[in-house]
Amino acid sequence: MKAEKVSELTTNRLSVYLRCLNELEARGEKTISSAALARKFHLNSAQIRKDLAYFGEFGTRGVGYCIEELSDHLRKILGLVKDYQIAIVGAGRIGSAIADYYGFSQKNFTVAALFDSDPKKIGKKVNGVPVHDVKSFSSVAKKANIEIAIIAVPGEKAQRVLDRIMKAGLRAVLNVAPVPLKAEGDVKVKTVDLTISLESLSYFLSGDPGSNEGDVKPKSPIGRTQ
Amino acid sequence: MKAEKVSELTTNRLSVYLRCLNELEARGEKTISSAALARKFHLNSAQIRKDLAYFGEFGTRGVGYCIEELSDHLRKILGLVKDYQIAIVGAGRIGSAIADYYGFSQKNFTVAALFDSDPKKIGKKVNGVPVHDVKSFSSVAKKANIEIAIIAVPGEKAQRVLDRIMKAGLRAVLNVAPVPLKAEGDVKVKTVDLTISLESLSYFLSGDPGSNEGDVKPKSPIGRTQ
DNA sequence: TGATGTGAAGCGGTTCACAGCC
DNA sequence: GGCTGTGAACCGCTTCACATCA
Question: What is the pTM of this model?
Answer without folding.
Answer: 0.91
